[in-house]
Amino acid sequence: MIRIPFNDAWRVGPLVSVHEAIVVAGAGEEEVTLPHDAMLRGGRSAENSGGPQTGYFRDGKWTYEKRFDVPEEWATKRVTFEFEGVYRDAMVYLNGALAGQWAGGYSRFHVSADAFLKYGQANTVRVDAQAHQDSRWYSGGGIHRPVSLLVGDLVHVTPTGLRLTTPDIDADLATVVAATEIVNEDVSARVVEVLLEIQDTAGEVVACDRSRVTLPAGDTITTHQRAYVQRPSLWSVDSPHLYQASVRLHDDSGPIDEAATHFGIRAVTADPIRGLRINGETVKLRGGAIHHDNGILGAADFADAAERRVRTLKAAGFNAVRSAHNPMSVALLDACDRLGMLVMDELFDVWTVAKSGDDYSRRFPQWWERDVDSLVAKDFNHPSVIMYSIGNEIIEAGTPHGTRLGRRIADRVRAQDPTRLVTHALQGMYIARDKIPALKAELGQDAAPVRGLNDYLGQVTHLIDALMASPVVGERLAEPASVLDVVGLNYGESRYVPDKEAHPNRVVVGSETFPTKIDRLWRLVTENSHVIGDFTWTAWDFLGEVGTGRHVYPEDQQVHRAPYPWLTAECGDIDIIGQRHPISYYREIVYGLTQTPYLAVRRPREDGYVIKPRAWTWTDVFPSWTFDVPVGSPLHVEAYAAAEEVEFRLNGSTLATVPVGTERNFVAEAEVPYEPGVLEVVAYRHGAEVGRSALRTADEPTHLSLESDRTELGADSQRLAHIGITLVDGNGVLNPNRDTKITIQVDGPGVLQGFGTGAPSTEESFLDDCATSFKGRALAIIRATGETGRITVTARAHGLPDASIEIDVVQAAIHHVTGEGQK
């Protein structure tokens, strides 16, 4: 089917009752380009909002409308709308009549348009959506993923009908099986030729097959064709080689329809002896959970933003991501395919027992099967996807009826895709929640005073470890674990070693873990073959669940969720604009991926209060040697290194030589007197230097530095450029202590799609053209408008010269190749 992007010239406004207004074609307050997050425009407030769970954003109900022309010749075609994600309870109307709906906010769905279209005339499509007390994180709202119009012949490949498998692979030959679902909606029988072609990255046809099929009127048939690729290039994390498969339908009159997709040739297996293997090689998952939002873009999901996220995550040492806690977007899966990132794609955060006031549990009984089908259809041809997760911390998972439901979900997944592993992120705090009071009393936590949030988090960590190790959790895990190919455990590392003996056939993954424990966790992963990896909470910070990992001092509110105007969870290795936190560099060293030590300095305080690593909270350190303190003031420094000892040097003089790992693995600490200049750390093993790094004092800022992730864009309204803005001195050194208001101006064929910082607490809007830098940084995201020319982006700050950067916008390549997986 021909795939036509359908993202421009939508109008959006609040959904109102027909008693208040009559919604007509073209109504709405604002013209937007999809994908779009309507919740951003509603703003935030301490009261009358979703509260700390959703980042204090206000919920809402919205309606989107678009007028479009339908050619006369489409009367003999089939027209289908493809929505990749609408949050939530989408109702789709064509020319005023209900044409389709979907309850879930993250599933891809299709709406047949034929019965509602007016051929040779203008038509109207309207989509209503809502978000109201239904999420434990920032959900966003509206049509937050792209929309396409699919147009095909009466005989055509169904929208998700081309599925590729590679059942037999060796170095000399790979068998590719193409299952193609073809439907005949004509009034008479049709005979069609089916041509399958496999192309390599150079566009050369490396395998093909031709078959013939007779379709009676109204019939649907699935063809199975085999093609053989000689000397195949296998897909893996380090070599993400992709092939292109296309299926073309012909009859006596000529070409009828086409479907195409990319795919990878690779094999995935898991067992407790050899662990997870991809193409026969053992792989340990260096994983991280990520939410669906794109930081300052909100929930809007653009392909260029997805690619930037995956590149950043891979550069930070991750080789796997887990979608938390909903199906991943096509754009993100495409990026994982291209760049070599493994995926655990997750279906649900709730089944039948609610976690929020009006969450998906109310829709689950009627919709879960369709959501399963949608997930599998979306993921089937993506080689990056190695595991499906059927749920996250499902409250009823350990009950007899919950286990039965879990088995039904897993079986429905396997019936459609037996090639991938099935897991479930199980959490003992839910499975054995009735035993928590007794266990707290046994541990003495009922009588122990809680001195602030940091102490509370320490107690929670100890309680989770004890509960997960308890026999009652082991017993209640027995049946839900038996449903799975891989047992996912959230914060369950205390079960890894005991279960190895008790359940010798069980394969385990740390589906969610505390980031502060990565040194011990990774040792458990590497020393136990049945533990295939670890997924930290979280790899990338996200909106909502505010303040989960923040630094709490005595003068702060001692509550688990932070007060308004907190915005982010503040527990990611990487912040919402893509900047790595110190723990990210610590993780990279623990993984053994670098010999370069990392240097950071604790924020100075007169009272000397120290925040130690607890749960989701790392130490309060920052990679800077620029402080407004008197010379000679003692500052606490941390160095992370895979070494025996490190040497701290200041302006060429050795201050201290400290062993690594005295109190924390891979960490050396010291107090050094502050003096502007260069603070350096040198790491040694067996007396030989293995690496060094340095921090330099910044002078007063002299200018803004602008850097774009691309110098050229296609003239396509889906294309983005990310422009990092830093506040630097004359030597180009970032100054994190002189934050200032920055205003962005965009001239030429581009618009400002989002502007903001990694500040975890702010009242500024990502939709404004002005933002206050945070620790010397800000990010502007520019979207092309669809015209060619040159975009000029200018940044202004009081007392500093204007700074500009240019991006050329060239004619975009036109892609009318159609079918599953094509954009």
Automatic annotation (TrEMBL):
Keyword annotations from UniProtKB, A to Z: Glycosidase, Hydrolase
Glycoside hydrolase family 2 catalytic domain span: 276-425
Keyword Hydrolase: yes
Pfam family membership, one: Glyco_hydro2_C5
GO process terms (BP): carbohydrate metabolic process
Regions annotated as coiled coil: none
MF GO annotations: hydrolase activity, hydrolyzing O-glycosyl compounds
Highest taxon of source: Bacteria
Glycoside hydrolase family domain mapped to chain residues: 704-806
InterPro entries named among the record's database cross-references: Beta-gal/glucu_dom_sf, Beta-mannosidase-like_N2, DUF4982, Galactose-bd-like_sf, GH, GH2_Domain-Containing, Glyco_hydro2_dom5, Glyco_hydro_2
Glycoside hydrolase family 2 immunoglobulin-like beta-sandwich domain ranges (all copies): 165-266
Ranges of residues in domain Beta-mannosidase-like galactose-binding: 58-131
Domain DUF4982: 632-690
UniProt similarity note: Belongs to the glycosyl hydrolase 2 family.
Record's protein name: Glycoside hydrolase
Source species of the chain: Streptomyces resistomycificus
Source lineage: Bacteria, Bacillati, Actinomycetota, Actinomycetes, Kitasatosporales
